[in-house]
Amino acid sequence: MQARFWVLVFFFLSGMTGLLYEVVWTRLLTLVMGNTHYSVSTVLTTFMGGLALGSFLGGRIVDRIDNPLRFYAKLELAIGVFCFLIPFLIEVIQPILKWIYLTHQGAYLKASFDRFLVCSFILIIPTTCMGATLPVLGRFISCNPRLVGKDVGTLYAINTFGAVLGALSSVFVFMPWLGLRGTLWLAALINVAIG
Asked: pLDDT of 38-94, one tens digit each?
């Protein structure tokens, strides 16, 4: 019972970090894409796509995992480490984005789509790991097949409440206090601590 409580606390915090990332990534990508609409579209599309992909893959392999809680810890570590590196990865792709801009000056939509693909490539890995956490933890939490819906629903609700806190605290607390990178690194540290 005590393990279940801590798992719910960790999944709440994980939901919070997910929305911290989403807000920070949108701001970071606005700097490289030059347009808030495109950065929001890129982050939202990749975030939701990664969650769906991760949930699909996590659901496919969860029954073959001996220790779902250990696998969840590895997912959280992977999220934290990869998200810590995202500002550096954005700097690495700057020459590619510049080349896209110079190559497709007459084709604005083509340039925007190519920038979307390059930026999505960076974000798809951590978002896929985030998506895999729900089925993996659902397997750990739910031991009774008749209570799977209730148990997974509780996990999802807890994670969603964490996401609401993350969205609010990112804009009103963490970004004014720590800046973009500081907020990102705080979220990454939380994920690593969860792992």
From this structure: 889 999 999 999 999 999 999 899 889 989 999 999 999 999 999 999 999 999 998
* 3-state SS assignment for residue 146: helix
- Residues 126-135 have pLDDT tens digits of 999 999 999 9
Q: Are 184 and 18 in contact (CB under 8 A)?
A: no
Nearest CA to 10 out of 140, 103, 128 is that of 140
Phi, psi of 144 (to 5 degrees): -100, 115
Q: How far apart are CA 120 and CA 179, in angstroms?
A: 23
Contact 170, 43 (CB under 8 A): no
Q: Report the Cα 150 to chain-centroid distance in Å.
A: 24
Token digits for 117?
């693909």
Taking residue 36's Cβ as centre, other Cβ atoms within 10 Å add up to: 12
pTM for the predicted model, two decimal places: 0.91
9 neighbors 85 (Cβ within 8 angstroms): no
* H/E run at residue 165: helix 148-169
Q: Whose CA is closest to 115, among 24, 27, 41, 21?
A: 41
Say which residue, 21 or 109, is predicted with more confidence: 21
